[in-house]
Amino acid sequence: MQAIKFQKYDLAIEKFQEAVKINPQYADAWFYLGKTYDFLNRNQETITAYRNLESVDADYNISIYYDIAKCYIELDNLRSARIYIKRYLEKAPKSPKAAKLIHLAMNRLNYVDISAELREMQPNTSEPTPIAALNSISGDFMPQVNPTGTRLYFTSVRQGGFDFKDEKSAELDFGEDIYYSRLVGAEWSMPELLPKPINSMSNDFGSAFTGDGQNMVFVRCDEKGAIGSCDLYITQLNGNTWSNPENMGNVVNDEDWDSQPTINSDGNRIIFTSRRAGGYGGSDLYMIEKNHLGLWGIPQNLGSIVNTPLSENSPFLAADGKTLYFSSTGHPGMGGADIFYTVFENGKWSTPKNLGKPINSRGNDTNFSISASGNAYMASSRLDENNYDIFKVELPDELKPKPTIVVQGVVSNAINQQPLGALVLIEDINSGELIATNKSNVETGEYLVVLPAGRDYSVSASSQGFFFYSQSFNLPKDTTYAEITNDIALEPIEKGTKVVLNNIFFELGKAELKPISYVELNKAVDLMKKNPTMVIEVGGHTDSQGADATNLSLSQRRAQSVVEYMVLAGIERTSLVAKGYGETVPIADNNTKEGRAKNRRTEFVIIEF
To answer: Is the overall model pTM greater than 0.85, yes or no?
Structure first.
């Protein structure tokens, strides 16, 4: 016992073995011998010691039956594990204080029963392949791929970063730092270290990004003034420079360990791992969302559908915002930690599904990440039980998230083509619901939004001193993945500026506005209220189909409908002029369907400012 106290485990084992050799009936010695083996993860020797104790005194301590079962699971002997879990449950006291332990044992019983079936299933995809360009002789893990699959961030303890070692560090552990790599053709580039202020002499790891790459959440440990041992931090990209990371504070972070965040594409929801009190056991997954003030709310446990009495880790929220991949040692699997997925629908998470073989293995498989285009990555210890490497994964279609569309481009000044920092809004064009708020990069003007299939969207950009721009995207549920380049040139607010309002629609052949036009018109109303000296000509235009006089009359009535809506919304009538142009000012070829659609438009012209 003294040897254990001073962590001299080999000496402790030697002494306990001497004791049971002298007296094979010495129950205490068998128990502590088993405990020591178990602490060192020497599973077969743990089983032998405890089974000898069982033969000496079957009721010495019933916890040995659970520990024997746990070791059999590690040794892939599920049949024997089941026998000992059942034996534990038979002997467990039916008292309130034993409820948690019974829950744990029931979880293990379910694990061995279903895992046996899972392990008999045939592989459902090709074997994951290690990525030589990313991996090192040290641990490499937590890959996070961007929506387009062209940039991958990961954590490594390799030498050459902000190296830090102490007496507890493993030989090849130089502290956790965040790296990134670019996809060049079909190959990943040499990893580059993220600079200060992201990486530091502390452990920095577990980076997660919004879809546009402008916001980053990550983990920093053992920082002075922090809440717990490891906390969540957040930072924003200003041009080409990351802001100084801010601790997310004691509403989000706990005095215990908080780690491994994932953030959804629009930046309003974070799911992370925590060992805080009040969970289901081990580490659990929690979710935070921004409230109406733009502040992060109190973490909510994802509940018993997702979390188990053991540990859930490394969540990754896919681009669709609904499909969550995570690792677990509690749900039935192939051994060690396995990767699962669950979908948030109708206000609840679906029953997690194991990704199957060969994605999951006898090793620890974790840190799954997938781009909107379907390129998937993970970390696994299958090649070295003491180390992690990053692998590329081919995911079967039935296990992929729901399809999304990526819209990206550059926001610029229409006059001088200089990049602009702009507010980019994503709204449901039918309901007017604001779904997400993004920003284009202030230096490059680049923006990126991710649109899950199954809704119709308005994507708009606005910047101080410029007329807003909107574009609609109709995405039915059967939409397949696509990348759309949509550069936006914003017109400055000055006399003579002319812009097309793309999201104003009328009933066929009529002047009645469709309700989906209201999102766009409300933006125009807000703009005029902020610029009360502005006078706008609302121009109605048609294609060349039909009689000239009919088109001229229709265009005038449509322009007047827009004016009447804006007057009702609070704009002075004297600030608006309706003018119909019919088919007289085409901007595209009327001989094509696409051209005629462009010619049927509503234009705003600033006639006074």
So the answer is: yes
